[in-house]
Amino acid sequence: MKFKPLKDRVLVKYSEEPEKTAGGLFIPDAAKEKPQKGEVIAVGSGRVTDDGKLQPIEVKKGDIVLFDKYSGSKINIDGVDYLIIKEEDILGIVEG
User: Fold this and answer.
1) 90-94 contacts: CB < 8 A, separation 24 or more?
2) What tens-digit pLDDT sequence spans the chain (96 residues)?
3) Domains and CATH numbers, the chain
4) Could you tell me the pTM of the whole model?
């Protein structure tokens, strides 16, 4: 299935978390928190400003981003968990 976010929204795929701690203990799925980091899969066209101009989105497909913990809407496409968030909920791009 293909998905294209509208306006200033971004589709993010959660980053995979390690399944065990540094001490070697395995973490069950029920105890894991959803990460606040993910990869940008698709972006919308941008936000229309008050004066009618289109302000393009700063992030692009493939960027690794950090986002607010309780932001966005969780969806499942073809068995994979994604998050649809507004660009303003993205805290920054992870570089390197």
Assistant:
1) 90/10, 90/59, 90/65, 90/66, 91/65, 91/66, 91/67, 92/65, 92/66, 93/59, 93/63, 93/64, 93/65, 94/37, 94/63, 94/64, 94/65, 94/66
2) 788 999 999 999 987 665 666 677 776 666 556 668 999 999 999 998 899 999 999 999 999 999 988 888 999 988 888 999 999 999 999 997
3) 9-17+27-94 (2.30.33.40)
4) 0.77
